[in-house]
Amino acid sequence: MREQWSTKIGFILSSAGAAIGLGAIWKFPYMTGMNGGGAFFLLFIAFTLIIGLPLLIAEFVIGRGAQQEAISAYKKLAPGSGWSIIGRWGAIGAFILLSFYSVVGGWVLIYTVMSVTGSIIHPDTDYENLFGTITGSPLIALSGLGLFLAISVVIISLGVKDGIERASKVMMPLLFIFFIILVIRSVTFEGAAEGLAFFLQPDFSQITAEGVLYALGQSFFALAVGFSVMVTYSSYLEKNVSLPFSAASVSIMNIFVSLLAGLAIFPVVFSFGFEPAKGPGLLFMVLPAAFAQMPMGEVFLSLFLLLFLFAIFTSVFSMLEIITAAMTAGTNRSRTKVAWLTGLIVFIAGIPAALSANVLADFTIFGLTVFDASDFLVSNIMLPGGCFLIALFIGLRMNRNLMKKEFLSGSNLSASNFQIWFQIMRWLTPVTILIVFLYSLGFI
């Protein structure tokens, strides 16, 4: 008998945890800082609500409709066809994402331990050099990667109820509490208004064609759609849960956390004269220096890093889950053994990304390090591609009656609501993804 989520709130918090992680807390701020501030944020919100939310509902519908993990779900819903490639695409994408995602998780784990022990904030610390030392040391980078994956595997091997759901029920509320504390402190800095204006006042002259693609990719990355992660998650869901309501809850929480991230970070950045377009090292280089100038700075930094670590773990659970579920589906394989094997393989695959800032710093792919190339491939090619395929599957192949049944089950929505969603998925979603992609390449 397949496992199931024990409660509706457990499913929503776990799904939100899968969506909210490095995407909302690490990547969103630096992508916003590099792509026009408020204009990027506004585009991100629009793409999340108009494209991302319907796609999230679609993954929920597919997963609960099939009651199977991602690869098996497409096989069951479209037997004898090639649509199962969507599930395989997702598993491969999740694997690549996990390989570099866990590297950042290792950095955060190291920073968290250092902060809790009081060994980060000192008057003479060069925080940019500290980040370079941690990422530039093969031993430290690989140790962080290995330890982070080991902790993740321990939790995922416990299963849905005992592992993911129990952890998310603790981690997600703490995430919001810690963030609100940080926002309150951040906006009280002298000069914080400039950072708030940068983040909340759109200036579309700062947006490029590439920035539009990045905003679309960020909405997919932050919602964890495109790799059928949510297909696997919703396959454990009972029929009395409203899928549109659950998807809307996850989407709103995601936007809210992204808003909190901006409110927590940009006032601090501008108050202390840092560069918002700092890139992937924004949190690691800028925030410790800023927190060092606060009363109880080490405490605030520790809170932020713990929050960050919680968010990353909840996201990693979802990616490990889709791979582990695919490898154990229809077999007698031990979930624990498969989870540890998966963790080992991901560790090996993550070694090049972990070494991108040290021994492999001079090795590039199209001018990008292995870490940056993996990020670009996942965020701007594989995620939009997976979303495009899912939209085609909904519009062209999945049984309409089954879709309608799953869409309406557990809710008081009407058939007309279903029709609106279906038409969005059939026409607006794939066309928008295609237009944005072609626009970013200069073909439009």
Automatic annotation (TrEMBL):
<dbReference type="Pfam" id="PF00209">
    <property type="entry name" value="SNF"/>
</dbReference>
<feature type="transmembrane region" description="Helical">
    <location>
        <begin position="299"/>
        <end position="326"/>
    </location>
</feature>
<feature type="transmembrane region" description="Helical">
    <location>
        <begin position="420"/>
        <end position="441"/>
    </location>
</feature>
<dbReference type="InterPro" id="IPR037272">
    <property type="entry name" value="SNS_sf"/>
</dbReference>
<feature type="transmembrane region" description="Helical">
    <location>
        <begin position="130"/>
        <end position="158"/>
    </location>
</feature>
<feature type="transmembrane region" description="Helical">
    <location>
        <begin position="381"/>
        <end position="399"/>
    </location>
</feature>
<feature type="transmembrane region" description="Helical">
    <location>
        <begin position="83"/>
        <end position="110"/>
    </location>
</feature>
<feature type="transmembrane region" description="Helical">
    <location>
        <begin position="9"/>
        <end position="28"/>
    </location>
</feature>
<keyword id="KW-1133">Transmembrane helix</keyword>
<dbReference type="InterPro" id="IPR047218">
    <property type="entry name" value="YocR/YhdH-like"/>
</dbReference>
<keyword id="KW-0813">Transport</keyword>
<dbReference type="GO" id="GO:0016020">
    <property type="term" value="C:membrane"/>
</dbReference>
<feature type="transmembrane region" description="Helical">
    <location>
        <begin position="212"/>
        <end position="233"/>
    </location>
</feature>
<keyword id="KW-0769">Symport</keyword>
<feature type="transmembrane region" description="Helical">
    <location>
        <begin position="245"/>
        <end position="274"/>
    </location>
</feature>
<feature type="transmembrane region" description="Helical">
    <location>
        <begin position="338"/>
        <end position="361"/>
    </location>
</feature>
<feature type="transmembrane region" description="Helical">
    <location>
        <begin position="170"/>
        <end position="192"/>
    </location>
</feature>
<comment type="similarity">
    <text>Belongs to the sodium:neurotransmitter symporter (SNF) (TC 2.A.22) family.</text>
</comment>
<feature type="transmembrane region" description="Helical">
    <location>
        <begin position="40"/>
        <end position="62"/>
    </location>
</feature>
<dbReference type="GO" id="GO:0015293">
    <property type="term" value="F:symporter activity"/>
</dbReference>
<dbReference type="InterPro" id="IPR000175">
    <property type="entry name" value="Na/ntran_symport"/>
</dbReference>
<keyword id="KW-0472">Membrane</keyword>
<keyword id="KW-0812">Transmembrane</keyword>
<protein>
    <recommendedName>
        <fullName>Transporter</fullName>
    </recommendedName>
</protein>
